[in-house]
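call fold(seq) -> C-alpha cells
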Amino acid sequence: MDLSSKKYLSQVEEVIKKTEAGEVYPVYLFIGDRPIIHPQIHKLIDCLVPEEAKDFNFEILSPDLFSEGRLLELLETRGFFPGRKVVLIQDMPLLVSADTMKIRWKKTLAAMETGNDDRATELISRIFSDLRIDPKELTGLSQTQMKEVLDWPKDLNIGNLSEFLEAHGEYLEHIEPIHTGSGDRILSWLAQRADPSRAIIIIESEVVDRRCSLYQELKKHGPVVDLDREKKDKKGGADFARSFIRSLIRERGKEIEHKAIEAIMDRVGHEDLVGLKTEIQKLVSQAGDSVRIKAEDVCELVVRHKDEELYKLTGAIGEKDLGKCLKSLSYLLDQGIHPLAILQTIANFLRKMIILRAVLEYGPGLQAVRSLRYQTFKDKILPEIKENLGDTLPAVLKGAHPYALYKLSLQAHGFELDQMLDLLASMAGMDLELKGDQVSHRVLLETLIFRMISME
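ret:
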C-alpha cells in the first residue's frame, strides 16, 4: 500500500484512524527526514502500544545494532505486558545501496551548509560505517584521494566535506559494521508467521533504494508513507508544505491566517520541512496566550533562512562557482530580498576578503595558509592576524567564527587585492543605480558577481 501522494498528511491520519479502529498491518514503512516523520510514527506507536506497556512491549533497533537475527528475536519474544510487541527500526541498512549514496551525501552537504553540525556528524558517521571506512583512514588525504576512497559522486563538490572533517572529524562516532543479512528471513517471517495482533515492525528511513527487492516486498505487507518522494514535486511539495504548516499549528491549539502561511513560505520555502517545523515552534512559543498567528508575527520572527541564503551566496562567490551564485541570487530576488541588502552583503564579504588578503600577504603568506589544516590556522595563524590588526578588529571581522575566517583565508588567493579595491570603490555607483530603478537589478548584481569570480 503506497501512500506517496499530495495528500500525505491526510493519509497519515487515515492510517492512524484505521489503527484506532483495529485495522493493523504487520509492517509500516515511513520515508523522509527524521524530524518530520518521527512525530507521525509516534502517533502510530501510541495507538499500537498502551503507555503503561511501552517500557516492555516497545523496542527501538538502531542501525548499528540491526541484524535479521536480532530483529526476529525481538519480534518473537513475548512482551512483559499482554498485547502486541512493536519494534521500530531506524534506517534499516538493508534498504540502502550504492545507488542511494549520492542522495545521502546530498543530505549531509545540506546539513553542513545550514550549519547543522550535529546532524551532519550523525549522517557522516552512518555513511562511513556502511562503507566500512574508519574516519582516521581519511586523515591527510587530498581531495582527489578522498574521492577515490569514497567513490564520490562526480557532480558533487567534496570541498565542504573535506573542510568539515578538518574541523569536526574528531567528533565522528566510529560505528563497528556488522553483518545485517539479506532480508530473506524477514520476508519469511512476514509470509509465514506474521500476526499483527502479536508483533509489528515499523521502519523509519531517511533514504531507501526503491528498486531493491526487499522494499518491493515490504510494500505488499503494509502502508508505505513516502514523504521524501513528495518533496520532489514542486507544486505538490508547496501544497504539502502549506498543509504541513496548518497541521503543526492545529496540533498546538493555535490558528494561523492565510497571509501568515504565505509569509512563512516566502521566507523558508517548501523544501526545507525541518526548517518549517523549527520556525513554527518559534512562532507558537512566542504567541503565548494569543490563539491566532498573524503575518506580522512571521515578518518579525522568521528571518533565519534568508540570512542562510545570503551566506550561501557569498560562499559560492568565494568558491567561484557561477552556477551556485546565480541560483542563490535568483532565490533571494524571487523571495523579495531588496537588491541593496544583497549588495551590502557582497560588499561586506569583499571588505573581509580585502583585509585578510592584505594581512596574509604581509604576514605568513597566502601559499602557507593554503596548505594548513584548520586547527593549525586557529592556533598559529589567527593569533598572528589579530596581532597584526591591533587591539580593535575591523567591524566586518568582529564576531566572525574562526572557521569562517579559515575558509575565507583559503579562498583569498583567488582574489587580487587591487581589483577588489577597485570593485569596492565602484559599489557606491552601483548603490545609486539600484536606487534609481533605471537598470535591471538582477542584471546589475549578476554583472557584479561575474566580475568578482573572474578575478585571477
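The two ends are 57 Å apart (CA to CA).
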